[in-house]
Design goal:
mainly alpha; 1 helix; about 50% helix; rod-shaped
């Protein structure tokens, strides 16, 4: 995702590359959630 405005749509965040992309953070969160669920089930 490359905002054309310069970070307006992202919410005032620095340009992509300085901060981990939301998608990456989302994947990490899903991974942690999956591990937690597996540990609870086990």
């Amino acid at each position: 995702l490359h905002p054309s405005g310069g970070g307006g749509e992202v919410g005032g965040l620095p340009e992509v590359g300085t901060v981990p992309e939301p998608a990456t953070l989302g994947l990490m969160a899903l991974g942690l959630a999956a591990l937690a669920l597996r540990r609870r089930s086990a």
